From TrEMBL:
Species whose genome carries this gene: Natrinema thermotolerans
GO molecular function: asparagine synthase (glutamine-hydrolyzing) activity
Entry protein name: Asparagine synthase-related protein
Domain Asparagine synthetase intervals: 206-276
One of the GO BP terms on file: asparagine biosynthetic process
InterPro entries: Asn_synthase (IPR001962), Rossmann-like_a/b/a_fold (IPR014729)
The organism's taxonomic lineage, starting at the top: Archaea, Methanobacteriati, Methanobacteriota, Stenosarchaea group, Halobacteria
Length: 567
């Protein structure tokens, strides 16, 4: 990876047992904690920073903003930490990982941002606790790794390893909104739902004000600026409020509805637009994508990875997770039957089953999972396994939420499948993560789930820019979800009417056109009939495990057809 944080709870001699200091741009060494950082943009305003002084050492990795005019976020954090302890993290804003070593009288800590938009992997297997941002680098320190069957199965069936699991039993992740010390993992309380009555909290006005502040905060990121632009709602508000963004990029054919819509939005705000054709590069599961999946999430979400060399900007903006934080993606909606299709009404389900709701949001396919189980040697009933895993994960998040709908969203945020998208961008560009803004997270936590809707978001955006909907998304010509769903259904069923196109290229066609079965799964012909998405998960997992060949060999034994004699 281009950027990396790696550390140990121990001195420089312990650090050097596992990594060379020469691998990093800077190493902060103390008697109880040593950490290295590699980042060519270290010290850029709004980005990674380090500080060493008589009072200790501090490192902030990633996007970071502080409430004062101090240009060094690490120095500010260390000073506040010595005064206020762990509460200092409440005022650190951005998408970051913080390492704080405040001297001999305080225990060193590593803390995620409130929503864990930056993963921290750790292991105790070699002896001292080792941590870092690259799962493969930390995993290499494990002397005798074993595959975590549950983590592997969750990834294959759901596209995400839940909770703190990875493919290796000895490798874990720091939980959502938590801190890591030399001997413990402690939860923090920055991400706890506290919905406010409508009379006391104007959801539309507060969201509009906070969006403006968050975008203004992120305008300090330097250099040539671009945005990954869709024809939908989320990225256009960024383009509308940051006129210095000169370039926009979309993956899709020139004649696709999504590309035409994005091009119109770009022209509205005076930005150039580039469409990358969905060729082999869109799906190619090589190192340019696979490493960022960290073995826990699908690289498929890194739509732009194959085109990185053609993106000529220094700073990149995106709208990832705006639908989750502002528009209720993980809440369970009430539906009605319209000609055999379940159509959401725009109202929340009064008593949702959390397992069923989350399985639908994660895109679980019972039939495909049964097919996968019949073709491999994992001795487990996939439906019972997946339902149990989802139930356990939901229960683990329940204490942070006041009601089931908020617990569903908390569970979705803690296990967001699309995070490799941000991992890749932030490794190759200075990257702004709007949805991870502290003030916007606070809005999310204080706004009742029935008001975290597309309508609320669009009303807030229109207060900022009353022309924001000049060009509507091609598949959402109406103000209400129900009308959009009905028109989509009518178009699909009526001759001579064109259907709404999906926003992303056809994965199945590209996979077949470029013969990925033979090129990437030639030794596993029995899985060729599985859907493309599940085959891409197999390719991701095998490729990521190549950093430890014994792990890849063990996975291969599980992927073989079941032994008829055993069955």
């Amino acid at each position: 990876m281009n950027r990396e944080l790696f550390g140990v709870f121990g001195g420089i001699d312990t650090f050097e047992q596992f990594r060379s200091s020469d691998d990093f741009d800077e190493v902060l060494a103390g008697p109880t904690l040593t950490v290295g950082i590699r980042d060519s943009d270290l010290g850029v305003p709004g980005w990674s920073a380090t500080y060493t002084g008589d009072e200790g050492r501090c490192l902030v990795w990633g996007e970071s903003y502080v409430p004062t005019d101090d240009p060094n976020a690490a120095r500010w954090l260390l000073e506040r930490y010595r005064a206020d302890g762990i509460d200092a993290l409440r005022d650190l804003n951005g998408s970051y990982l913080a390492v704080i070593d405040a001297g001999p009288t305080d225990e060193a800590v590593i803390a995620t941002d409130p929503v864990r938009s930056r993963e921290c992997f750790y292991t105790d297997e070699p002896g001292p606790r080792i941590f870092g941002t690259d799962a493969a680098s930390v995993g290499r320190t494990v002397t005798e790794p074993t595959l975590d069957r549950d983590g592997v199965l969750e990834f294959l069936h759901l596209g995400v390893a839940l909770g703190e699991k990875t493919p290796l039993s000895e490798l874990r992740r720091v939980p959502l909104d938590s801190r890591l010390t030399s001997t413990a993992i402690d939860p923090l309380d920055r991400f706890v739902y506290d919905p406010q009555p409508a009379a006391d909290f104007d959801a539309v006005g507060e969201l509009a004000d906070r969006l403006e502040r968050a975008l203004r905060r992120r305008s300090v990121l330097p250099g040539r600026k671009g945005v990954l632009l869709s024809a939908g709602y989320d990225s256009r508000i960024i383009l509308s409020q940051l006129p210095e963004i000169a370039h926009s990029y979309t993956v899709g054919s020139l004649d696709a509805q999504e590309v035409r819509g994005a091009r119109a939005v770009a022209a509205q705000y005076g930005a150039s637009h580039t469409a990358f054709p969905p060729d082999e590069r869109y799906l190619r599961p090589d190192e340019s994508k696979r490493r960022y999946s960290q073995g826990i999430k699908e690289s498929l979400h890194i739509h732009h990875a194959g085109y990185t060399d053609e993106i000529d900007v220094d700073t990149m903006y995106h709208g990832l997770l705006c639908d989750t934080f502002f528009r209720g993606h993980f809440t369970a909606e009430n539906t009605v039957d319209v000609l055999g299709k379940r159509v959401p009404t725009g109202r929340l389900e009064s008593d949702p089953d959390p397992v069923d709701a989350l399985l639908e949001k994660f895109g679980y396919s019972r039939e495909t999972s049964l097919d996968l189980a019949e073709r491999t040697s994992f001795a487990v009933d996939p439906d019972a396994f997946v339902r149990g895993a989802i139930r356990d994960e939901f229960d683990s998040r329940r204490s942070r939420a006041d009601r089931i709908q908020n617990a569903l969203t908390c569970c979705g945020i803690a296990n967001q499948p699309s995070m490799p998208f941000h991992n890749h961008l932030s490794d190759n560009f200075l990257t702004s993560f709007l949805a991870a803004d502290r003030d916007l997270i606070d809005w999310h936590l204080r706004t009742p789930p029935e008001r975290r809707t597309t309508e609320t978001f669009l009303r807030a955006c229109e207060r900022i820019d009353d022309d924001i909907l000049r060009h509507r998304p091609p598949d959402r010509p109406h103000d209400t979800t129900l009308f959009n769903e009905i028109e989509g259904f009518v178009r699909r069923k009526t001759p001579f009417l064109s259907s709404f196109e999906p926003p992303w290229p056809d994965r199945e066609a590209l996979f077949e056109r470029h013969d990925f079965d033979q090129r990437h799964l030639g030794d596993l012909p029995h899985v060729h009939s599985l859907p493309t998405r599940h085959k891409l998960r197999v390719i991701d997992l095998r490729g990521w495990l190549e950093f430890r060949p014994e792990g890849a060999m063990r996975l291969r034994s599980w992927l073989r057809p079941p032994d008829p004699a055993v069955a």
